[in-house]
Structure formats: structure tokens, C-alpha cells
Amino acid sequence: MTDWTDSLPDSARAFLENRRLDEVECIIADLPGIARGKAVPASKFARQEYFHLPDSIFFQTITGDWGEAADEDDGGFIERDMILRPDMSTATAAPWTGDWTLQVIHDAYDRKGKPVPYAPRNVLKRVVDLYRQQGWEPVVAPEMEFFLTARNLDPAKPIEPMMGRSGRPAAARQAYSMTAVDEFGPVIDDIYDFAEAQGFEIDGITQEGGAGQLEINLRHGDPVKLADEVFYFKRLIREAALRHDCFATFMAKPIENEPGSAMHIHHSIMDIETGRNIFSGPQGGETDAFFHFIGGLQTYTPAAIAVLAPYVNSYRRYVKEHAAPINLAWGRDNRTTGIRIPLSGPASRRVENRLAGMDCNPYLGIAASLACGYLGLMNEKWPSKPLKKDAYEGEADIPQVLGQALQVFEEATELHEILGEEFCRVYSIVKRTEYEEFLQVISPWEREHLLLNV
């Protein structure tokens, strides 16, 4: 191995042991969370300190169209090159490739060496730094829900569950069933194998309530590191599914009348000096900081929904009795609420945000959730009383469609200060462009019920 590979993480060095590295994928997440970048020969990567991509990758919609987000004061849409520098701590295997390939996440800088403000990883780093300036270390643990489905080659046809090893379609309403998990055994085996090759630790895989719906839990840790892992995991899981003639989808609501897929985010905050969880006092009781964090989620999450639920499909998930929240009530060990306090001891006391969909960009979803909690801490927001009953009996108090969510987001000046005003400007323009594209599409429902009846 060449000298530069000696500094790789242990898992990447183990992957390459006694093998010749062929290629390095230099990647960065765009606004939707798609990996963009270049694949270069290993010999070239060893010689390069950075590479270039145009900043316009952050102005692109999920359909490949362009939001007019270029800053006119800076020359308009001339596609300036960014400087992308590798974070070698993120180097990991791409074990599904035909040769020996590594992936490396890069950070985006402008020509003056400043972080590009609308690069999602930079947005999350910005929020984490605000916590650290207060002497706090945020800790998160994301949960990833997704569906394994039959191949869908015609967008006009509904998505269907995949065939299990029994030869029958995956069954719904089999939450936590080990038999249901066994139906997808070959796919799950590859997920475990790929994760091990990449050095990722899975805390568990369970069957969720939807047909072919699984959940993977990750161990708690640094927000940027965990966002990197979710970013990598989405690709890893898709590749494992394709090996077995099925699709993995992270759509918030891929199948009618089935639950949606969430990325629940567990939060705790450590005092950097003492190492103690600031949500718990010396005697183990709940602190003001604990309540202020919840109050922040209740106060500011409506403005952040456009980031936590970034597509028109995202809002189909917020449905009563389908394992998704419809409001911002909070409660202890209550899965009907948008904000849940899991059972735990004082040292591991944490707050779970259940609003984020699995379709959100993991960097941006975690950043937005942390930003809401941070504002609650700084502004000493107090939450409502904890809910001890079914939250579905209450009224919905979050935006119900993307257009409404974007309007609330665009007016949220305090949130803009935390996430970065330039990021919020670009994000809003790109999402507005996507929403306007969607409004031009006539759906099957409209043709079926309106064509001859109105």
C-alpha cells in the first residue's frame, strides 16, 4: 500500500489488506443527499490535495432541473468551481464494486478557503460548532426506516412489496416479527457484510409495521459522523437490495395505506468540561436544559418541517394511526407524540424527534433538529405539559403540505441565523422550484375522479 493509505481508518485498511487499491470515489452530498463527485484512479488521488466541482450542484432539484439560486451580487449563474478537500477520517470501502474501491467524503470551500454555506455537511458543522461555543457536545442516534420493494420500472404503476424467500409478497402489520425479518435474510446478510466492511456498527435490525419495511438503529455519537454513516448507509442498502432483484426505497410514503418511513433522531447533550449529560442534574432529576430543549423543538420545529419533510410525498406520512406524528405534543414513552422521551437512566436521558422523514438529507435533518433544540436552550423556551394520552386525539399543528411548510420556513429568521442565511435562501429557492414542478403534474386521482364528474 502507498504511504497515504497508512493514515486510513482501521476498517478501510483492513479492507485493503494484501490488495491493490484501484479507485477512489471522491464524493459530497448535494441538497437531496445524493452523492456527487468523481471517481479517480488511486494513483491520481494520492497526488491530489483537492478537486473541483461547480457550486451549481447545490442549485439542482431532485428532478435534475435548476433553481435560480445563484447570487446575482456574485456574478449570477456562472457555475463557479468549489474546492473540495477530503476528510480522510471518512474513507471507507465500496464493497459492492467489482474492483477495490474506497469512498471519501469531501468538504466544500470557496476560493477564499471559506466553507461553502449551502453544502449540507457544512450546515451541520455550523450548528455543532454553536453548541461547542457554549461548552456543549451534542450527541445523536438516528433510526433509519426503509422499504424493500419489488422492482418498479414504470412510475405510473404503484410500488409493491418485494417477494420474500417464501415466494410470497412481504406481509404488513408484522412489526418486530423475526419470521418477517427472515423473509429478507439474503438482503440483510449483505447489509451486515457491507456495513462490516465499511466499519459501521449496527445496533439492530427490526421488522417495522409496513410490508417489507425494516428499521436499522445506529449507535449514538457525534452528529457529523452519524450523518456521514446515514449518507453512506442509504447507498449501501440500495446496493444490497439490487443484488437480490429488489429496490430499497427511502421515500417517506412509498405504498398507499402503509406506514411511512421516518428517521427518528435521539438527542442528548454533554457538558464538555464535566462529561455529564446536561439533561440530568446531580441527583438524576430532569434539568431546566432538558425542558428548554423540548420547548425549542415545540416552538421552532414548524419552521424546520420544510427541511425534515423536504418533498411533496413527505407530508403523506403525517397520518393518524399510522405510526407517524401529526403534532408537536411531547410525552414520556409515548409513540403517538412528535417528541418522545424514551425510557432511560439519568446518564442516557435523551429526547427523540419523531418528525423527520427518512427522505430528508441526514446532514440537514440532524442540523435542523439540533438547531430547534439550541434555540430552545438559548431562549429558555418551556414546553407544554407532557401528554399522557393518545396524541392523535389532538389537532394537527405542523404544516400539512410542502408549500405551507416553505412559507413558514421562509419567515423563520431565528432559524436562518442558526442554519445560515445563505443556505436558507438557496434551499428555499430550490424547494420552491421542485414544488412548482410538481404542481404541473396531473395525477391519476385527478383523471379518475374529475375528468367526467366535474
From TrEMBL:
Pfam families the UniProt entry points to: Gln-synt_C (PF00120)
GO biological process: glutamine biosynthetic process; polyamine catabolic process
Listed GO MF terms: glutamine synthetase activity
Superkingdom: Bacteria
Cofactor annotation: Mg(2+)
Coiled coil regions in record: none
Keyword line: Ligase, Magnesium
Alphabetical list of PROSITE patterns matching this protein: GLNA_ATP, GS_CATALYTIC
Domain GS catalytic: 120-454
Keyword Ligase carried by entry: yes
InterPro entries: Gln_synt_N_sf (IPR036651), Gln_synth/guanido_kin_cat_dom (IPR014746), Gln_synth_cat_dom (IPR008146), Gln_synth_gly_rich_site (IPR027303)
Family label: Belongs to the glutamine synthetase family.
Protein name: Glutamine synthetase
Organism: Marivita cryptomonadis
Phylogenetic placement of the source organism: Bacteria, Pseudomonadati, Pseudomonadota, Alphaproteobacteria, Rhodobacterales
